[in-house]
Amino acid sequence: MQISGRIEQYRDELITLRRSFHQHPELGFEEHHTAEVVESYLKDLGLTTRRVTKTGVVALLAGSRPGRVLMLRADMDALPINEENDVDYRSRNPGVMHACGHDAHMAMLLIAAKVLSHNKDAFAGTIKFVFQPNEEIAGALRMIEEGVLEHPTVDAVMGIHVWTPVESGKIGITAGPVMGGLDVFKMTIFGKGGHTGVPEDAVDPVIAAANLIQTVQMIQTREISNLKSTIIMFGRISGGTKSNIIPDKVDLEGSIRFLYKGGPDSIEQPTERFRRIAEQVCQTHRCTCRIEIIHENIPLINHSGLTELARQTAAEVFKDRNAVIDNVTMASEDFSEFSQRVPGVFMFLGAGNEKKGTTLPHHNPRFNIDEDVLLNGVAMHVRGALNYLSMNVV
Ligand SMILES: [Zn+2]
Ligand SMILES: [Zn+2]
User: What would the pLDDT profile of 256-269 be if each residue is shown by its tens digit?
Assistant: First the structure.
């Protein structure tokens, strides 16, 4: 109780911080101003900071006794979107916008760092605050390569995403797979250009592309169990110049998402199946193809013990067991890289409020959040850390 009272007093500072980050968005790995703000805030709390990657910031807070190491993570990057919100704290950086809520993540974690730094006697062990760049394009892996999980070695990791598809006043915390794995493909189908009146003299890559788009859809229903969610989507198709010309080639781009332990080790890996079928469909149409696969994110899988701890913490913070719901999405997150290496839990803090107009999807140019939920986000970090560092759950 005492701690939640302390958190409440930072309401204005929390919202001011979030709005200030919102006004100054920066793209992935370019968060120079953002990193400086984060760093100087943490230094003012008396913490020593270090950079991991050029724009990633890490700070350590030691408790009163030695113990385990808990990492709390916030992401820092914005998106290449021109903000359409008419608010006085709208983006001052044209074409760049915090349209995913990472501004709120940083504000919540900074206030949590402040509260925890005033409560060092309340826990044993160390809290590692990690502000991670470039979440939107797999920045976590770069931080891991540069040692973010070492010095000291992290025992567990927690993260929170504000989430407008979940209503304000609720929080989604689920054990097991909660966010999809994501592979991106870019491919070109090569045929032989010609006259649409004489198709037999050409090799048409357009019909090959049409067939390929249809045929790969059977991977989900005929090659992989229907209980293992898989989506294959095409986001871009382009080829040709005019109605009576058969083009030389067609370009296709898309994404493959899967909500189970997939990846190169899995025999059910959808992406290698995609490659096999795509190559054979092209061959059937006398075309050739070039396929590039980019493995962006692995599925995010929540650790069962930490999930239970987080659910108990949420019941305390929200003062209502029913506020804690299940939430699973095919969208992806590079937090999965941390939680693959150490036990982790990732939570979805409901920020959707019809009355405040904050139910638009993430990445929308008019995306916004219900700021009144942010105090509970801070409380989840603070109480989650105190509960973890005083209990023997993992
Ligand atoms: Zn996003
Ligand atoms: Zn995000």
Answer: 999 987 655 666 78
